[in-house]
């Protein structure tokens, strides 16, 4: 415990040093983003640390959160509501429901005594019919909306509501994904979740009527007063208003994390957490003592994904832009895994530490490596070899390499992470 | 009618075979590694890119030395690139995977380690190579063969580029060679035995280390082959194969993980499925245009082109659900 406190203290000192080097507004910017990542890391810790579920589709859930908050909080697009768009979308929704019912009937046809090849045939036909019916409704709707209104816009509701909706939507998608994939073994689960997150990315990138695709949606509103609001209310100093606005945003995210952390920790220490660890460590014996392993795993998968959805929504709100092409597996999936592995899987403090620490290191390694490469370049120029061409873009790649090195190094030398899970024995 | 068929052949059969060959070569490596070492080697895509970059460096050296032949230089240096990449693959295994295996970690840990390796290879390639795209054909021209098929009554020609023909040819050669290696040689038989039943293979005196080395050599050289041929066909860029590593996994899983022949079939299935699903089938109806009812739309592609890669994931998910062991029964981990 004292060691953990020292680690967090060291993190604080590190942050102070960053604040001196990179100035306070930049540091605050990093801290807000880091807090969102800490929430995401907590979500992955619930899935991987508590229950041993292998989710490599973090990016997909972050995108779902981003899309959800855009839809809820972006101002209303009058052109869309004035057009035929809503009615056509309603028809598309009906078509989707019709297709869903058809598929449901076909998959449950064994209740009416339809079995074997015939049932398979019915399922395939029902999926194909559902797809064709849905496409026949959604395609003209999408074309109309894109032509007349650009995209459907938002609902203009409070941002915090959008964050919650991000969590709910991510949870709903996690339910579907979990129902499909959780029976798979770890390697297959990993590949399947990566695949699903890529499907989500392709959809978000190309559903221009909903997300504006590569055109991006901005500016998304903030839940707390933005720098512009503060300037408008009379504070002239631009730096000061930026700092104040970011402090406001940060206090909201920190408050959220504190509440969520408290309950996660309680759940971990309680019977539910013990049961989860039992399932993770030996699911055969957990089944034998009557635990419904599949259901519990689905539960924990949904819980973790809700946290990821909220985190993704916070990320999008804070950066004020929904940019589908900005989502990359390296920045949104793999880095979260590094946070968990380095911080310590199974320990919420570890996830918190890893989330903040790795994000800050990842961000400051950009100016740091540019600086370092500048020195090397000066040196090589002095030595007569010549300067390094395109220093900036090359230096950025260095951190991808370092991230990979950190993963392999951590797995080999401290696989438990810096704040490892502590197995409590009976008092 | 003939013209539409030729169009279909160019668009679907040729591109499907090309894509399928690349997927198949990659999937064989993934499936062999999974069969022998029991983990999903995620860094395989970047191993392909690495092989392509090695070939590019060798080709640059060759053209600087003034070596120029009838064949594309990138193709001439392919055997050397394969050897070097196989060596690099062995080195990666020795440095990153072997110590973890020695500690007896779970396969999942190896998968995470392979993601670390992916990031390292990506970082290094971009560090030294930059982020720009490169072409193997800066100093020589890429030949496009137009086969005149007027004897079939078509005015269109069958179009295949030289790299595409070479790709299909080397894939066939590699597959035949692999077949003979796996069925005739002692080492190949040992590999199959180990994939089927590791403990039985161990007690029957198969040299495990040798089998592991052979696996990496085959996987590495096939990855270099696939990467180089893909770069010759399209263009060399740092994320050349990272983008297709998931379709390759889909191919390996569809074919049944651990099954070399399954991986080849899976690669071709995924390749053709992708090209067929984005093909606009309305073109095939064009000759009957006058007799068709009004409501037949002009676009009858199954999915829009931008969802081409998504097809592989959908197939992957469906196969995982319906038949997780793949079409050929695969190993379980």
From TrEMBL, chain B:
Its main location: membrane. Pfam families: BPD_transp_2. The keyword Transport applies. One of its GO terms (molecular function) is L-phenylalanine transmembrane transporter activity. It is a multi-pass membrane protein. Keywords: Amino-acid transport, Cell inner membrane, Cell membrane, Membrane, Transmembrane, Transmembrane helix, Transport. One of its GO terms (biological process) is L-isoleucine import across plasma membrane. Belongs to the binding-protein-dependent transport system permease family. LivHM subfamily. This is High-affinity branched-chain amino acid transport system permease protein BraD.
